[in-house]
Amino acid sequence: MAVRIRLKRIGTTNAPAYRIVVADSRSPRDGRFIEEIGSYQPLRKGDNFSLKLERAQYWLQRGAQPTQTVASFIRRAGQLAAAAPAAA
Per residue in 39-55, pLDDT tens? Predict the structure, then answer.
């Protein structure tokens, strides 16, 4: 089973919102998924995504392939997590 980490659209017309999910690559975009690990709201300014970084790392270790957009969220969440302990 090929597993992907990708976006699932849940928003309405003209108000997009997405969930970051782990899903089988054969399932449709808004179809079945294995686990929900975050959300993304593109119309929000500033902090517009949330991600369970430890779950994303878990799935990446198991061979899940992220989409380009989700890969950028994982990189950004990792940078934010690394900067948070240094600031405290």
Answer: 999 999 988 999 999 99
Measured on CA atoms in the order 74, 76, 79, 81, is the torsion positive or negative?
A: negative
DSSP H helices, the chain, are: 53-61, 68-87
CA distance 27 to 19: 15
Label the pairing between strands 3-9 and 49-51.
Answer: unpaired
Domains, the chain, with CATH or none? 3-87 (3.30.1320.10)
Whether the Cβ atoms of residue 39 and residue 50 lie closer than 8 Å to each other: yes
Overall pTM > 0.70 = yes
Q: Is the CB of residue 51 less than 8 Å from the CB of residue 20?
A: yes
